[in-house]
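From the pipeline queue, job 12 of 40. The input is one protein chain; the requested action is below.

Action: predict structure.
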Amino acid sequence: MATDARVSVGIDSALSARALQALFAYAPWARTRKEEDIRRMLAGSLLLVSARRQGNLIGFGRAWGDGIYRAIIDDIVVLPEERKRGIGTALIGCLIRELSHVEEVALSCRSEVAPFYERLGFERYTGLHLKKKVPQVAGPAAEVPSAAARVPR
């Protein structure tokens, strides 16, 4: 982990789903995420990075994808009292360095934070971004087969 005098930012494969759930309370899109689902999300991510102050989680980001052709940066969150201090920039920088071998790195964001990502070199995509909400399957999450189990060999 890279360290300045107060904050450490780097790869973090030992993230606690409970600590991340507390941080997600500050992200409008992630407030209702359940601990078990966060645990599954962590396990399915390509890369996890965190920002910590004295061991306490103050920021997080992740990437998912195939790690060769595509990677999607997602869930960049910094505690409100820690914003505007370069922590989000450091999280993105760490992700980009670790994903430098990937052909295309993309992200989606709310329009009000797009200028932040543009300052970091991201460009607006002129194509169309489509989304579909998939109905939730009833029953425990563990019953849903992994993507690897669904891919024919």
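Job complete. The chain is about 25% helix and 25% strand.
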